[in-house]
Amino acid sequence: MAQPDISIIIVNYNTADLLAKCLSSIFKQDVATEIFVVDNNSQDNSIEMVQKNFGTVKLITNKINAGFAKANNQAVRLATGRYIYFLNPDTEIHGNALEVMLCFMNDYPQVGMAGTQLIFPDNSPQSSLEYRYPGQRYAKKDLAGLPGDIAWLLGASIIARREVIEQVGGFDEDYFLYGEDLDLSLKIRKKGWSLGYIPEAEIVHWEGQSERNSLPIQVWEKKFRAELLFYRKHYSARTIAKIRRANILQALWRILTIRTMLPFQKDTTRAKEKLAKYHLALKFFSGPLA
């Protein structure tokens, strides 16, 4: 059997309806692929849906929710494609996006990993990349000498050379949810590879569907935890101390401001959510790093 051009890896958790649309959009593409779905112990009908409707998909079923990083790495170890495409289940591929991505990676050998243009279902653009890292203003020495201008790519839709993923050891499994794409992007740049962006490859992204049943405060807790983990892995102790001090001061100021304005607002729901967020930030950035 000929080597596939692209190994597509989708980590799924309770998104059967969206996963079906995602897989259907992949099968409309005219590129040689192999498709992995890693199911993180979904409690809906995801597994049955894949088995019934997409028999050629390589299905990996976990007994527990292993997290985003570990689940992706399970499929990476089995992938045979020249490129590995990490794709969220709450996405749909537009047009001939896979062919566009393949041509881009073939034409730019210095690019180790590239992101696509994410769009909302109404076709309005989403942010697909960032040019700065969290806390970067305090981390100039920690981030000196990195190639390219793009800092990191959002993990909903990223394609990478298989040898690059193997070179950096895949996703860091210390991350469970959030921060994995940030960490992977920086690891790749530290190995001398640039990051790329493919605006012609449009991917519809419903955004945050695996967390649709989580409370906002639960999501923020995971994000703060991942952010601190990123700092520990990539920044010096001196840099981290500066970042923590800045975040503590910001959280205190936001808390004071919101509390002052709260009595004058008719609908306080959103303000109270923000207040809870900044109290949580204060807890994380003033507490122990571990």
List keywords for this structure.
8-stranded mixed β-sheet, two-stranded antiparallel sheet, 2 domains, 290 residues, alpha/beta, globular, 19% strand, 10 strands, Spore Coat Polysaccharide Biosynthesis Protein SpsA, Chain A
CATH homologous group name of the largest domain: Spore Coat Polysaccharide Biosynthesis Protein SpsA, Chain A
Average of the residue pLDDT scores: 95
* CATH architecture verdict of the largest domain: Alpha-Beta Complex
User: What radius of gyration results from the CA coordinates?
Assistant: 20 Å
How many structural units, i.e. domains?
2
Strand order of the largest sheet: 3-2-1-4-9-6-10-5
Give the structural class. Answer: alpha/beta
Quick summary:
This protein has 290 residues and is α/β, with parallel strands linked by helices.
What does this structure look like?
By secondary structure, the protein is an alpha/beta fold. The protein folds into two domains: 206 residues, Spore Coat Polysaccharide Biosynthesis Protein SpsA, Chain A (Alpha-Beta Complex); 51 residues. Strands 3-2-1-4-9-6-10-5 form an eight-stranded mixed beta sheet, sandwiched between helices. A two-stranded antiparallel sheet has the order 7-8. Helix 1 links the parallel strand 1 and strand 2. It is globular. The N and C termini lie far apart (48 Å).
Blueprint (SSEs and pairs):
Blueprint: E1 6-12, H1 16-27, E2 33-39, H2 46-53, E3 58-61, H3 68-76, E4 83-87, E5 91-93, H4 97-107, E6 111-119, E7 129-130, E8 152-153, E9 157-161, H5 162-168, H6 180-190, E10 194-205, H7 216-234, H8 237-261, H9 269-286
Parallel strand pairs: 1-2, 1-4, 2-3, 6-10
Antiparallel strand pairs: 4-9, 5-10, 6-9, 7-8
Helix pairs in contact: 1-2, 7-9, 8-9
